[in-house]
Amino acid sequence: MRDTVFKIEENKRIARDVYEMLLKGDASDIKAPGQFINIKLDGFYLRRPISVCDWKNDEIRIIYKVVGEGTKYMSELSRGDELLVLTALGNGYSTETLLNIIKNEPATRVVLAGGGVGVPPLYGLAKRLSELGVKPDVVLGFNSAEDVFYKEEFEALGLSVKISTMDGSMGVKGVVTDVMKDEKGEPLYDYVFTCGPEPMLKAVYNAVGDGQFSFEARMACGFGACMGCSCKTKYGNKRICKDGPVLYREEIIW
Amino acid sequence: MVVPDISTELSGIRLDNPVIPASGTFGFGKEFAELYDINILGSISVKGTTREPRFGNPQPRIAECPMGLINSVGLQNPGIKEVVEKELPELCEIYKKPVIANISGFSVDEYVECAEAVDKVENVGIIEVNVSCPNVHAGGMAFGTSADNIAKVTKAVKAVAKKPVYIKLSPNVTDITEMAKAAESEGADGLSLINTLMGMRIDIMRRRPVIANKMGGFSGPAILPVAVRMVYQVSKAVKIPVIGMGGVSSARDVIEMMMAGASAVQVGAANLTDPWACKKIIEELPKECERLHIEKLSDIIGCIE
Fold first, then answer.
1. Taking the domains of chain B in order of start, what are their residue ranges?
2. Which of A208, B59, B187, B230 pairs with B35 at a CA distance of 20 to 30 A?
3. CA distance B267 to B38
C-alpha cells in the first residue's frame, strides 16, 4: 500500500452515469486484478474506494458510477487534475487458484460474471487470464442498453461475451444467471469469478459450484484498521477491505 | 534554539511524545507496522476489548459527514482471552513501549474481569476503561452517562488493578465535569476524553438511516472544538492527568489540546483517512514547537487560564 499523487489523463462518460478515468502515476505495487484504490477528494472526509479496472506500472484505469456527491465531484474533474490515491488495497482475485484447478480438471468451464459497476475488475482479470492461456466466457448484466459498457473491450480480448438486461433492450432479457445455463436449465460453467451487487452475487452463488466473489462494502479506512466493513465467513470474521474484497465461494455465509 | 523537548508523562510513565493512536482506529498496530516504524509513537491505545468475543453491529457501520464520520462498529473484538494471550504479546514484538489497554463491559463484573486480565500483561502501561461507547446497548455509554455508575466502575476496577486506571468519558452528558469528578473521587489515575458524539445520518433518497443501527459515534475534525472545550473544563475541575482526543489531525491540534489541559493526546479518525497521520504529526511537532517558541512541550499543559 502506498499513498501517491496521480494525474488524471482522461475522464469520460462511457454509459449512463458511468465514467472511465485514466490516472497516471506509480501503480507498481498493484499485485492482482480485483484489488482496489482509495481516492482522497477535496471537501470529502472519507476516501472513495474504487476497484481497479486495469493497470500498468505507471497508470490505473478505473470505471465508476455517479451514485452520490463524491462520485459526482469525480465526474467533474478534468485532465491534469491531481488526486491522492492509496493503491493496492485488498487481496484481489487469485488466478493461481484457478490454474491449479485447471491442472487437475482441464475441462473446467470458466466464466466471468459482472453486474453493473461490478464489471470493471473483471476486465483486468480477463486480460491476465488471457495472458495465462485461459479463455473464459464473459457474462455481463445491466439494467438497460444505455447502461452497457465494455462489451467490445472484452470481445477484443477474443472472449465470448453474453449480455443480459433487465428490460431486454440488449441481449437476453433477465439477469446474468439466465445466460449461465443451457436450454434445459443445466449449468454451463464450473468456476466463476464475479463482482456485482449482493443479490446478483447470491444468484451466481446458487448457479455455479465454485469460484471467487468480490464484495462491495461501505468502508472508512480501506486498509483493515477500523472494522467498518467486517463480515462473517466460514473461516471467521473478515474485513472486506483487507481480507477481501474477494472471498472464495466455500467460505461465504449469506 | 535547542531542539524542543516534546516528551510528556502519564502517571509516572514517560512518553517520548504525546501522540497516541486512539482505540478502535489502530487495531493492534499490525496494519500500521507494515507502513512505518510504530515505535515512534508515544504509546498506543489498542482496540477496545470485552470479556466475550464480539462481532459487533450489522452493516453498514459507517456514514460520512462533513469533516468527519459516524461509526457504529459496536466493539468488534476477539474477547479478552485472545487479546491477552495473542494480540498483546504480538504487539509486544513490534512495539517496545508500554501500551494502553482499552477495556469495555456490560456489567461492573465484566469490567473487573477485563481489568484483572490486562493488568497482568507486561507491556500494558495504563488501563483505559471505556465507559462511553455509544454503539452498544445496555453497556458502554450506559455507564458513562451516570456519575453513580462511573463511580462504581472506577472503584471496582481500582480495587483489582495495580496499573494506572484511566476512565474514558463520554461527551454525551449534560456536565462532563461531574463524570470526571466521580471518577477522580473513586481513585481514577487519569481521564481520557472525549469519546465520540452521538450522531445520525439519513439517506434521503431511500428514506432510511445510513447506518444499520440508526445512530453511531461522530468523530473527526468537526468535533475538535467540542473536545478542546471539554478537556479545558475537565482539566480545571480535577487534579488527575487528562488524555485529550477528538478530531486531532495535526501538530497544531496536539498543541491546542495540550494548552487546554491535556498531558497527552490521542489521534483517532485521522488514522483512517491518512494511515501515516500519527507519523506526520510526530515529525511536525518539534517544528511547530519551534515556530511557537515552545522549548518544552509539557510546559504548555493547561496554560490557558
1. 8-300
2. B59
3. 14
